[in-house]
Write a structure and sequence with these properties.
Rossmann fold, flat, 7-stranded antiparallel beta sheet, 7-stranded mixed beta sheet, alpha/beta, 30 strands
């Protein structure tokens, strides 16, 4: 076990593999949570000793019961608490006194019911810390481990699932019961099954690190209702994916956001919380799913079959229409049809009737029996251009459905290429589907729905093989300057940095700024403009003004001392007219940048995932067109280039209709530097560089306008 997973282990091995379990607060009443949990633990045939703890009973189901957990004479590994929330703290205290280190708290009535419940939950956390205990819950369904070495069913689920290599973790206990029923119907087994409820102690992050090293688990599924530590979740998922090559599939509910407060910057207003969640998941390699069916469609494809070595597929069907529909779906999803070799074509020609289609997709015709299917599958499996096979069956009067299903299962075991099946229909094909599922051939009701899981698995494996590193660090930055500026701002209780200070910050991280001055008078404006060299741009500096264009606070194309002198006066007049209450600190003067393509870069602080970097089409139309992309910091050079390519702005930057190619490399460099600034100084709440003017390739980019908003001091 590596160091990070060891830190997050939190006695989880004892929770999943206890040699003795005390059910604290159980009873004899069937159909109640306390009674059913005890029955479930006995019924699963736990590989260990069970101790019922019940103040009112002397025995339960023929097993000696104890009044209190401290009365048990022998050591206890795991306690499952099912008392009402009002006495859970006392029960946990006794578990600590007994020396129990691992606990599952099933009981509800904690933070999910309001402030009083939250206080009770805090008491549990304090008790657990006092005795160095770890607990799952409260307010959860419980924990299941199907491993024969344990066979733990510390839950009130209706059924003990089959053994498998898929782990399922959920914040919702009610969803767990539905998932177990769904999985049983499709003969899907689990390695570990955990409802972690309020995650007051053990969280999904701890469970991910545990499952990373769990030999019984090949795929990890996770349902979340809230993300309290986004950075920790992303780091855990990255470690799991890169080190164990196990895919992490997540359903995150609450995708819509109502009543979001207005942000002060373009970056803040354009970055929705669910969009950031999407971006963070993609960066980490997490597969985000919209629903349970999609999640399990992908999970069984990965868990039960070899990883496709290419994105080229062979389709074998006894009906032309479904073959064509599947072909269309495959191409749309990014898959390709394999091109059969001459040898494969000759084998198919010899094995199939003259009316059959021997090109891909292969149509073995409606009256096909098992021999045609197997001949076609074998030929396709042996073809070097085929990465995976999709087998489609529609029930005809002469179709031997069960025999075909059995032969598909036998053939699949002979090769290291994945096989996916779709026996279309319901009643007639039910027996065949059960055979496929029992032999772990992934089955899909509609053949088109095979394509998304297949391409998802292939892309996941390709990303693992690429081994991209997110970490990047520029060594030519001056963090001391930024620290000084931000400390001064904190001392002055300032949350909005004027542009001359914002420029000082980004200049310290070597973003491409231009020569500038801050004028306090019209005479200074003329002198400074002359020193900088014409043309110049002049802008109002005020903590009260965020968008300078809106109040007449910017004048461009100033070409002489006289024009600068007059521009100083004009800006002051226009701003005072538009915002008479605004306090003006001076007029910022900077060299005017040559004409180029305007882009926007930004930082936004997300409450779950930390600093988020934005790139997009800049200028005054940024919020109109919303042509932007996001990444969670840190952002590598490769990821920065992907950000640029995701936007329509990339087409302008690449050069269209005779326009020159712009300096895309300079943008990518600026993105990585902005990312490093965000990581080093998390107190930056929002930052806009809008616009950054991008010149022709090789001539660089220049920041034309920037603003920084800091978090309020607590």
């Amino acid at each position: 076990m590596n160091q990070r997973s060891f830190i997050h282990s939190k006695n989880l091995q004892t929770i999943f593999y206890p040699k003795s379990v005390a059910i604290v607060g159980t009873n004899k009443v069937k159909g109640t949570v306390p009674g059913d949990i005890f029955t479930n633990i006995l019924g699963a045939e736990l590989n260990g000793i069970v101790y019922p703890v019940s103040p009112r009973e002397s025995f339960i189901s023929g097993v000696k019961a104890y009044r209190y957990v401290i009365d048990i004479p022998d050591p206890v590994d795991l306690a499952v608490i099912v008392f009402p929330s009002s006495v859970c703290n006392m029960a946990l205290e006794q578990c600590g006194q007994k020396g129990i280190k691992a606990v599952i708290i099933i009981s509800a009535g904690f933070k999910e019911v309001g402030e009083k419940g939250l206080q009770k939950e805090k008491e549990l956390i304090e008790i657990a810390r006092k005795y160095d205990m770890s607990f799952i819950g409260p307010n959860c369904l419980g924990v299941i481990n199907t491993d024969p070495l344990s066979r733990l069913n510390a839950s009130f689920a209706r059924k003990f699932p089959a053994e498998g290599n898929i782990a399922f973790l959920s914040q919702s206990g009610a969803l767990c019961t539905a998932v177990l029923d769904y999985a049983q119907a499709k003969n899907i087994g689990f390695s570990k099954f955990v409802s972690f409820g309020n995650k007051a102690d053990i969280s999904e992050i701890d469970l991910l690190y545990y499952l990373m090293d769990d030999d019984q688990t090949k795929v990890i599924l996770l349902y979340l209702e809230e993300i309290t530590d986004g950075q920790g979740l992303i780091k855990a998922a990255q470690d799991v994916i890169q080190k164990s090559h196990k895919p992490v599939l997540i359903i995150k509910s609450g995708r819509t956001s109502a009543g979001a407060s207005a942000a002060a910057s373009h970056t803040g207003s354009l970055a929705g919380s669910d969009e950031i969640c999407d971006v963070a998941f993609r960066q980490a390699g997490i597969i985000r799913c919209d629903n349970i069916e999609e999640m399990f469609n992908i999970a069984i494809a990965y868990a039960y079959q070899p990883i496709p070595k290419s994105d080229k597929i062979a389709i074998i069907t006894n009906a032309g229409g479904p073959g064509v529909l599947t072909t269309d779906a495959a191409i749309k999803s990014g898959l390709k049809l394999a091109k059969f070799s001459e040898e494969t074509t000759l084998i198919l020609k010899r094995s199939l009737p003259a009316a059959a289609n021997i090109k891909n997709p292969v149509d073995v015709i409606g009256d096909a029996k098992a021999d045609r299917y197997i001949a076609s599958i074998t030929a396709a499996m042996n073809d070097k251009d085929v990465g995976s096979i999709i087998v489609i069956l529609t029930p005809q009067s002469m179709t031997d459905i069960e025999t075909i299903a059995k032969e598909i299962a036998v053939a699949a075991k002979r090769f290291d290429k994945p096989v996916y099946a779709s026996f279309m229909g319901e009643a007639d094909v039910a027996a065949g589907i059960r055979i496929l599922q029992n032999h772990h051939i992934p089955h899909y009701i509609l053949p088109e729905s095979i394509c998304n899981p297949l391409v998802t698995i292939y892309n996941f494996n390709q990303k693992i093989r690429s081994g991209e590193n997110r970490e990047i660090e520029n060594t030519d930055v001056n963090a001391e300057i930024v620290e000084s500026v931000l400390l001064d701002a904190e001392r002055d209780n300032r949350t909005y940095l004027p542009e001359y200070l914002s420029v000082k910050v980004i200049e310290a991280y070597r973003l491409p700024v231009i020569e500038n001055r801050l004028a306090k008078s019209d005479n200074e404006a003329g002198v400074f403009a002359d020193e900088i060299g014409f043309p110049v741009v002049m802008k109002v500096m005020s903590d009260d003004i965020i968008h300078k264009y809106d109040v007449g606070g910017i004048i461009l194309n100033i070409n002489s001392k006289e024009e600068a002198f007059q521009a100083f006066k004009t800006i002051n007049e226009q701003v005072k007219k538009a915002m008479p209450e605004a306090i003006i600190d001076g007029i910022y003067i900077a060299k005017q940048i040559p004409k180029g393509t305007e882009v926007i870069l930004g930082i936004k602080k997300d409450p779950s995932f930390g600093s988020v970097i934005m790139f997009g089409l800049g200028g005054i139309f940024v919020e109109t067109f919303k042509d932007v992309s996001f990444r969670v910091a840190p952002v590598s050079k490769m990821e920065a280039l992907k950000m640029i390519n995701e936007t329509n702005a990339s087409k302008l930057l690449a050069g269209v209709r005779g326009m020159p190619e712009m300096d895309i490399e300079s943008i990518a460099d600026a993105i990585t530097r902005l990312s490093q600034l965000a990581i080093n100084f998390p107190q930056i709440s929002e930052l806009d560089i809008n616009p950054m003017i991008v010149l022709e390739k090789g001539k660089g980019s220049f920041v034309a306008d920037t603003k920084i908003i800091l978090q309020k001091s607590t």
